[in-house]
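Hi, here's the filled form for the chain we discussed.

Project: internal
Contact: R.S.
Residues: 669
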Amino acid sequence: MIQLAPIVVTGTRTEQNSFDLPIAIDVVKQEDIQNGQLQMTLSESLIRVPGITAQNRTQQAQDPQISSRGFGSRSAFGVRGVRVYVDGIPLTMPDGQGQPGVVDLSAIKSIEVMRGPFSALYGNSSGGVIQLFTQDAPDTPTIGGTVMFGSYDTKRQIMNAAGIADGVEYLLNASNFESEGYRDNSESDKQQATAKFKFNISEDTKITTLINWFDQDAQDPIGLDRARAFNSSTRDTVVPAATNANTRVSRSHTQVGFNFEHAFNENNKLSFIPYIGSRKNSQILPFNATGTNARTSEISREFYGSDLRWDNQGKLADMSYNFSAGVNYGKSSDDRLDVNTQLAGLPANVINRDEENISTNYDRYVQGKLSILESVDVHAGLRRTKVNLKVKDNFSGFGDNSGSVSYEKTNPVIGATWKITPAVNVYANYGKGFETPTFIEAAYNSATSGATPNLTLKPSTSENFEIGSKAFIGDNTQANITLFLVKTSDEIVASSTDAANRSIFANANKTVRKGVELSIDSNFENNISTYFSYTLLNAKFDSDFIGANGLILDGNRIPGTYNSQIYGEIAWKYDPLGFNVAFEGRHNSKVYVNDLNSDNAPSSTIFNLRTGFEQNISNWNFKEYLRIENMFDKEYVGSVRVNDYGNQRYFEPAADRNYLLGLSAAYKF
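And the returned structure, exactly as it came back:
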C-alpha cells in the first residue's frame, strides 16, 4: 500500500507533512539514490523529479547541469539559479554559485527538492531549492563496504561506519572513484570523506558537526561540434583543442558546519548554523580553436557564514500556527589567477588576470503558517536580501579594474492550502524572486584580451504564480499536479562564449515560463510498484532584445530548456529470494543550444534496467546489483553547452550502452 506523504523541512524550516504544504516539493528516498546507482552525481537521482532538469554530462570535470523550471539552464560551470544545501548548510556561495559535488551521495538518506515561489525565502538565486540530508546513526553500530565495477574501467569503493558511542551519534563515510570515461580525454579520479557527529547534551540541547572533504582530478573532454557529435565514429572523441591543450581540472574542498539546537520549551526553539570552508580549483582551457594556446584559471576560495533562527509554535485565538524568524550572513573570498600557460604549442607564463573576488550576503527573513480554518492553512513569508560583489585588481597590465556593486531586494511570498477531504488538497501561491549575477557571470564584459569585469549586469527579478493539487487515489496511489507561471525581467543570459572559452553574460528584457508538473506514485499487490513523472515547460523570451550575435526574437525558446520531459519506472520485489528488478524509461524533447534557436539537440528516449539480490544472514547484510544504462544503445546528446557561438561546440554526447556491477556487505554488532 502507498505510504503516507513524507515529512519535510525544506520550505517551512519546521517538520511538516509535504501533503499539507502549498508547495511543489518532492522527496527522493535513499533507495532511489543508492540502489543500482554509481552515486557520483545528482543527475542520477533527480531525473525522476518533475520540474527539474538534471543532465549527466558523461564526465566528471563539470558539475551536472541542474535547472528548476528553466532557472539555471544557462550554467556552463557549477549550478546557478538553484540553491543547494546539506543538512541546512549551504553549498551555494553568496553570489549564487553552487557546487553539489561536495557531498558523497553514498552518505545521503534523502533529497528534498522544492520548486516555485517559496524557494525565494532561501535567498538570492532561488529558482528552486535542493536540500540533501545525511544518514542518521542507527541504534546498533554498523560497519560496511561496497565495491563497484563498470564500463570504461570504472571502479568505486566505499567504506562506512555508523552507530552510537558514549551517547555520541556518529557517521563516517569514505570513498574512492576512478574511471577512464566514455569519451577520449575524460579520465578522472575522486576521493571523498564525510564525518557527522551528533552530541545530545540534554533532551533540549543538541550539537551536530558535519565535515565534508573531497579531492579530484579530471580530464575535460569539452563539447563537440555538430559534425562530430552526430557521427557514430567520432561522438566518443574530442576536438583537437582538448588534446593539444590537455584540458583538465583539479579540485579540493573542505567544509565544516555545525548545527546548535536548543528547545526552550515545547513551543520555542533556537537554531544556530555556522560553517567555514576552503576550495581550490585549477582548470586548463584552450585559448584558441586548435588548443595550441591554453590558459590556466586558478581560484583559491575561503568562505564562511551562519544562519540564526528562532522557531515558535502555538495557538492564536484557537488557531494553530508556527512561525520562524532568522538572520543569515555569508562571505566568500576568491583569489583568482588567469595565466596563459601555453602559446603556439610552447610553455608560457603570461598573466592576464590576478584579482580577489569578494561576495557577501546579509539576509533577514520571517515565515509562518496560520490555520484559519480546520481545512484551510495560510502560509506567508518575507526575505530581505543584500548581496555585495567586490573586485580587487592586483594586476596592472590592463589598468586598475577594481570595482564593486550591491544588489538589494525584499521578496514576499504567500500561499494557502484547502483540505477538501482528508485525501485531496488544493493549493495556490504567489511570490517574487531575485537572482544576482555570479562572479563567473560578471568575469568579462567583452571577448577581447584584457576584458574587465562586468559589474554593470543587473539582477533579474520575477513574479511567480502556482496552483496545484495533491491527492491520494484509492489506497495505493498518490498523485500531484502543479501549474505554474513565471514572468522575469532582466533575465541573465549567456550572451556568447568566444574561442578562448570566455563566457560573456548580459540581461535580456523579459522572459516567461509556464508549464505543468505531474507525478503519480503507485504500489500494487505482489510488491509491484510504478512511478511516473511528466514536465511540460514553455520557457521563452517574451520580448525582442539585441544579443552579442544578433537580434533575439520574442518567442524564441530559452536555450537549455526542454519542452517536455518524462520519467517512468515499473519495479517488482520478490521477498522470498530477496530479489528486485526495475525497468526505467526517460524521454527528453529537443533542446535549443543558443538564443537564436539556430541549432538544437534532437529528442531522445532511453531505457535502463536495474536488478539485484539482498540477503540477511545472522548479523550480516549482503547486496548484489547490476545496472544496465541505455540498454538499447541509443546514440543521443546528454547535455548541451549554451550559446557557445565562438566555438560551435554545443554538444556533449551521452554514453552508449554501459553497465555497473555492485557488491556490498554490512555487519551489525
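Let me know if anything looks off before we file it.
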